[in-house]
Amino acid sequence: METYFILVGLLSICSLSFSQECNLQLLENVDFPGTDITFLYSPDVEHCQHLCTQHPSCLFFSFLRADWTRDNRNFYCYLKSTPSGEPTVRTPILGITSGFSLKQCYPYINPCLSQVYQNVDFFGADYRALFTADYEECQRACTKDPACQFFTFVNGDFTSEKIRFKCHLKFSWAVPRTPIVETKPGVVSGFSHKTQITQNFPTACEGKLFPSTTIPGNDIVVLPAASPGHCQTLCSTYPLCTYFSYVSNNFTCYLKNNANEMVTTAKEGVTSGIPARFCQLDDDWVKVAHEGIDFRGSDIRFELMDDANACERTCTEDPNCQFYSYVGERFSDRFYWRRCYLKRVITMPAPPKVTKLANVVSGFTQNCV
Length: 369
Ligand SMILES: *[C@@H]1O[C@H](CO)[C@@H](O)[C@H](O)[C@H]1NC(C)=O
Hints:
Blueprint: H1 2-18, E1 26-31, E2 36-41, H2 45-54, E3 60-64, E4 76-80, E5 91-100, E6 116-123, E7 126-131, H3 135-144, E8 150-154, E9 166-170, E10 182-191, E11 204-205, E12 208-210, E13 213-214, E14 219-224, H4 228-237, E15 243-247, E16 252-256, E17 265-266, E18 270-274, E19 280-281, E20 290-294, E21 299-304, H5 308-317, E22 323-327, E23 339-343, E24 353-364
Parallel strand pairs: 11-19
Antiparallel strand pairs: 1-5, 2-4, 3-4, 3-5, 6-24, 7-9, 8-9, 8-24, 10-20, 10-22, 12-18, 13-17, 14-16, 15-16, 15-18, 21-23, 22-23
The structure holds 2-acetamido-2-deoxy-beta-D-glucopyranose.
């Protein structure tokens, strides 16, 4: 027991030295040049700040606003970090707003972005379209559809007459995806037991899995997944997925679309299945620790721990952590032994591209969890 407390004490000292303060300040017309991790599109600085917060390693950002005129990089949200956690340079420049990740601000609440953006297109990621009288009705259509994360509405003055009043419903991943899943002896990986897999439906269900079965063809999305259950959850939240196949030897999840027929074939090492859309899919797959598997990348930080169970508990208790990998003492390189890597990906609504376009209105679902 005593060693336990000493350990906890040491760990909290370690994590204190890593942590930055909660900094809510937004610096208008200031750039933090360089030290980019990546850039993503954002319609405004608030959205950009949440992207930075949900990105595993982003500590601060610079956002090129709609009124940025030096080139056409409007709506670019640059995610940044430095070892110190502070920007090395601050440059005054018109059209850029900079700020900090909210990772250290507890409780961090998932954003509900109620603003709509006039003359802004959330380009791509469409899964369904309908005609609505105005953008408010389009926003309601998006909010009522659990798959819809954001929308673009084409108003009555748009140049191309045929698509006036068209309401495009759009999708981005709200379920954590593991970007890389690979075999690595000595490593144990798993998910936070608080992983939000779908919205809360009152009816529980198990969904339908077909073991040792493949459904050839009709692939629309191919992505890594940890298990057939994980693949099924991805299919259940992806609006165009009619059924899926999961190949175990390379951890590949094939989401498929064919609403006319489903042709199954016996095949070892492949699990296929049907999504669950109107019930709470059981989340047993979230509780499984995968021995000999690494969810490589997407690291928030690492801490030293005695075993994979402690790593899982730490991940579950940390609201930022979605999944973890623990390096045990059977791993080949002892330098990494006992490291518990806490990981996450962006799960907020994120348009793949944001551009200026006259006579369209874009916005986000109001169905916020
Ligand atoms: C995974 O394995 C299957 C069958 O073994 C193969 O057909 C497929 O191309 C592989 N997929 C990837 C992404 O490597």
